[in-house]
Structure formats: structure tokens, C-alpha cells
Amino acid sequence: MAKTMKYWYGSFLLSSIAINILFTIYLYVGGGRGGGGLSWSEKAAAEAEAVAAISCSGHGRVYVDSSVDSEGRLVCECYDCYTGIDCSQISPTCPANADSGDPIFLEPFWMQHATNSAILISGWHRMSYRYDDNPFMSTQLENYIRKMHSIVGNAITEGRYIVFGIGSSQLLSAAVYALSSQNSSSLPSNVLASVPFYPMYKTQTVFFNSENFQFEGDTNAWQSNNSTNNLDVVEFVTSPNNPDGELKKSVLGGKTIYDHAYYWPHFTPIPAPSDHDLMVFTLSKLTGHAGVRFGLTSIFSKSTRFSIQKRHPLHCNFFNETRLPSPAYAWVKCEREEEEDCTAVLLDAGNIIGRPGSWFGAKDRYVRLSLIKSQDDFELLMQRLTELVSLENGTIDTIGSGGGGGGGECALSWSEKAASEAEAVAAISCSGHGRAYLDGSIDSEGRPICECYACYTGIDCSQMSSSCAADANSGDPIFLEPFWMQHAANSAVLIPGWHRMGYRYGDL
Ligand SMILES: *[C@@H]1O[C@H](CO)[C@@H](O)[C@H](O)[C@H]1NC(C)=O
Ligand SMILES: *[C@@H]1O[C@H](CO)[C@@H](O)[C@H](O)[C@H]1NC(C)=O
Ligand SMILES: *[C@@H]1O[C@H](CO)[C@@H](O)[C@H](O)[C@H]1NC(C)=O
Ligand SMILES: *[C@@H]1O[C@H](CO)[C@@H](O)[C@H](O)[C@H]1NC(C)=O
Ligand SMILES: CC(=O)N[C@H]1CO[C@H](CO)[C@@H](O)[C@@H]1O
Question: Which one, of 493, 470, 505, lies nearest residue 51 by Cα?
Fold first, then answer.
């Protein structure tokens, strides 16, 4: 299990951070000018289009870095429940696995925006440790993140620091560490969250086994048993909440970590920007399609055996209208008194895998179903739930397993824009003493500008500062750049916007 989790984090790191950041910026802010014939970038563009055109029947995907068969041909990576060389065979007894979410649900969004979300990365892209003028972190990325929050209206970023992490789990853990008492002669800080809460808070806090903090469970139970409020507490507030989608507020009013993973307009109305000292957002759930995933309200409305959480309409500033939330999870309750283990009921009676309420500090009469997986997974879940509910009165309704699916038919030219942009940026002259990058500094008109190497300045890096010290203090992978420039055509990669959105590779 631990190994599997590591894999997930690993691929999360790759797909969601490194690549998603580039895509997102590119899409929200728009790319540069195209045009002109292609040279070194054309091979990568043609490869990317050829790979994207391989059919996996809409139930799987091939990537440039997928496994190959014995003849070197790329092999389809099929979604859950599908098999066969082109993913066309469905296994009828396969369970609807709604245990966890998967960013693969964002794929259709990026496929719709193929031309604007593709990126061609040259072999020599950012070989250096450092960004222009600012070691290690991209100020350009920071600017885009602030701009994005301002456009979406979900957070006030003025006067606040932006800290990047490799997935929000890392930042949540760092926040607990930073807010807890770092004083071995005093008692450990008490870490709490309101039931039902995201289990990772407890898992991580216990895992790190620190003398500075300890997990104390539910805020409400804590509050009713502790009269004084001046105890040392660190409270997680998840808003919207995982599992039930509620917009939660702090119960204890002390040191608070706001986890806003789902505070995006496609999951919840945004009544006001969040304005707190410590807010955590994640890019892995940033894009999406509003409203389509809560069709199951109508399925459950007929049921007396199961119920799901209520949703309350709110005014959303982003869409400027009153709307219902479209939460990432269904929080299902078994209403029959004898059905105390709702997860087992769903599995035995419905062939549906959910996550038990006790994982969230609640009763096992509750079960969480993840709605953020692939369209195939969602449709299978809807089908199984419909059958399960219709069984209540002895009749069986079924809904067709239905079309859907992404389909790999992209226009042959979606990659051209990215390729010509990459060439245009690479062609900007920095006198051989600097480099302009696709994700680099821009001038007031949004055009990429040179990032000069140490000791060089000027708009084209042509001026050398004669008093500049020769800094031989540390190495820098930038020394590899000439190699990759020599192999421009063979080292460029064109990455489509939907590249590896899932947590997992192939069968792993
Ligand atoms: C640690 O806690 C003790 C007792 O509460 C206090 O006297 C001391 O000043 C604290 N030290 C630091 C470095 O905060
Ligand atoms: C709170 O205190 C009461 C009375 O001491 C006890 O019965 C109960 O179990 C406590 N609750 C928790 C969550 O510890
Ligand atoms: C089953 O019958 C009950 C009582 O007539 C009704 O309230 C409920 O909606 C029915 N359930 C379904 C799924 O039709
Ligand atoms: C929001 O909608 C209202 C009513 O439709 C309209 O009067 C108002 O101008 C809109 N606000 C913005 C910022 O578009
Ligand atoms: C200091 C103190 O009284 N802590 C208690 C607060 O409430 C929780 C939950 O009821 C107890 O476990 C703590 O011991």
C-alpha cells in the first residue's frame, strides 16, 4: 500500500505540478504569436499528433511515454474495467470504483483546448538551477498564480507570500509543523479538524510522530470538553469540505489552516474571496466542467434506503449568478437501521466501492463516493446506483452504459501553434549570453524577453559588467545546454494539454 501511494505521489508530482503549471498559465494567459515554417520542432509536433491519433476506443489513452509492445509500438493504457489492445472490451462484473478521485476527470477540458494547451518543450529548456534574477522559484509563475486567484475571485493574495509545494499534502504537513509549538519544554500543540474530515490530516500528523504536535480529533468534541480557549490548537478547516462539500468555518478560532483544494467555481459557488493568513490551494483540481457530476441527486431522490448530503444554492461571484454546488464527492448515508456498514451494503448489493465513514471520523453508516474520475468511471457508477436504487421496490431499471468517452479525434493541426511558438521564443537573440523561455520573463506587452546569464545585462544580454566576479562557488546544469541545442530536433517534446492527467501509469 505504501508503495502504491508513493507511485501516486510520484506521478502527481510529474503530471500535476511540472506540467499542469505550464498548461494552466498558458491557457489562462494565452500564448504568443505563431506563424512561419517549422524546423527543429516539427518532428516532435508530428510525433505528438501521431500518438494522439492512436485509437483506444475512447476508454483509454496512449502517451508519448507509454509502454511499447515487442515491435516497439505504443500500447493503449486502458481505463478501469476496460481491456483489449484498443481498450474496447468492458468487463461486466468490474466494480464501480468510487473509492478515490483521479485528476483524469479533467482530461476532456484539456482535449477541448488542444491547440491552446499544447506546449513544445525544447531539449535545452531551463537547464539552470535558477530563474532570472530570482534563485530557484519563478516570479513569473507567482505572478500568474496571483492573477488567476484575482480572476477567479477565490482568494485575496495581496500582501501574502506564495509558497510552492509538491502536492498539497506536503504543504499541509509543513503548515502543521510551522504553527505548532517548537518548544520541547512545553506540551505539544493539539491538531484538530471537524468531523467528517479528510483522513490525511490525521494520517500525516500521526505519521510524523512529533513531540511538537499531536492529533486530537474532532473540534466540536474538543470544545465541549475544554472550557478554556487559550489551549494551543492548530485547526484544519476544509472548505468546501472533503467528504461532504460544506463550506466550513473555523470552530476554535485559533491557529487555522484553510484547505481550499475544492474552492473553485466548478465545485462550489464562490460567495467571496477567501481572506485568511494561511490558505492552501492545489492545481490538481483547478480546471473542470461545472454541474455535470451531480446527476445522482435525481437517482437518490427516489430512494428511501439511501440519502445524500443536501446542497444549498449560493451566489457565485465568478459566474455572477446563484447556483448549486457540484461537489467532488457524494456523502451517502444508509437510512435503514440495520444497515450500519454502508460501504459493505454498497459493495454487496451494488458492486460499488466507496470509502467508509469511519475514515473521516464519522459513523460507518456513511460512505464517500468519489465523482471525480474518468467519464467511464462516472457512468458506471451512475448505472450501478440506478440499479441499486431501483431494486428497492423489487423492479430493476437499467440505464444504457452510454456513449461518452473522449475520443481521440483531434484536428491534425492542433500541435502547430505550440511548435511555432517554441521556435519563435528560441529564435529571440540574447547574444549567446542569455536565453528567452516560453515560461520566462515578459515585457510590458507580454513578449518573452532575454534572461541574461550572470555578468551580462541589456535587452539582448550584450553588455558585460567588467567588475562582475567570476562565481565558481557552485555548479549549474546549464553547462549541458550546448549538447541539447545540438540535438534540437530529437530532444524536443510536444506535450498535449491532456498529457497524463491520471494519478497512475498503465497498470500501476
Ligand atoms: C518554552 O516554553 C517554556 C515554558 O512554557 C518557556 O518558559 C520558554 O520561554 C519557551 N522557550 C521558547 C524558546 O519559546
Ligand atoms: C468528553 O468528556 C466526557 C465527560 O468527561 C466524556 O464522557 C467524553 O467521552 C469526552 N469526549 C471525548 C470526545 O473525549
Ligand atoms: C419505493 O416505494 C416507496 C413507497 O411507495 C417510494 O416512496 C419510493 O420512492 C420507491 N422507490 C423507488 C426507487 O421507486
Ligand atoms: C451581475 O448580474 C446582475 C444581474 O443580472 C447585473 O445587474 C450586474 O451588472 C452583474 N455584475 C457583473 C459584475 O457583471
Ligand atoms: C487539556 C484538556 O482538557 N484537554 C482535553 C480536551 O478535550 C479532549 C477531547 O474531549 C480531551 O481528549 C483532552 O484531554
Answer: 493
Distance, in Å, from the CA atom of 243 to the CA atom of 459, rounded to the nearest integer, reads: 52
Is the model's pLDDT at 129 over the cut of 60? Answer: yes
> Is residue 82 classed as helix, strand or coil in its secondary structure?
strand
pTM: predicted TM-score of the whole model, two decimal places: 0.80
Task: Record the cell numbers describing residue 251, joined without a space.
Answer: 470552530
Pocket of ligand 5 (CB under 6 A): 221-222, 225-226, 231
Report the C-alpha gap between 299 and 303 in whole angstroms.
7
Element spanning 315, H or E: strand 314-316
Confidence at residue 296, expressed as pLDDT on a 0 to 100 scale:
81
Alpha-carbon gap, residue 294 to 310, rounded angstroms: 12
Q: What is the CA radius of gyration of the chain?
A: 25
Longest dimension (CA), the chain: 88
Q: How confident is the model at residue 76 (pLDDT cuts 50, 70, 90)?
A: very high
Is residue 434 within a helix (H) or strand (E), and if so which, with residue range?
A: strand 434-435
Q: Is the dihedral of CA 208, 211, 212, 214 positive or negative?
A: positive
- Which phi and psi (to 5°) does residue 121 adopt? -105, 120
Name residues contacting ligand 3 (CB within 6 A): 302-304, 389-390, 392-393
- Banded pLDDT at 407 (limits 50, 70, 90): very low
Whole-angstrom distance, CA of residue 227 vs CA of residue 371: 40
408 pLDDT above the threshold of 60 = no
Cα separation, 89 vs 86, in Å, equals 8
222, 225, 227: residue to mutate for ligand 2 pocket, most atoms within 8 A of CB: 225
Q: How far, in Å, CA of 447 to CA of 465, rounded?
A: 25
Q: Which atom of ligand 1 is nearest to 184's Cα? A: 1
Ligand closest to the CA atom of residue 322: 4
CB of 221 within 6 A of ligand 2: the answer is yes
Identify the band that residue 398 occupies on the pLDDT scale cut at 50, 70 and 90: very low
Residue 437 main-chain phi, psi, to 5 deg: -120, 155
Q: Per residue in 261-309, pLDDT tens?
A: 999 998 999 999 999 999 999 877 766 655 557 778 888 998 999 999 9
Q: Rounded CA gap, 76 and 507, in Å? A: 11
Distance from the alpha carbon of residue 226 to the mean position of ligand 5, in angstroms? 6
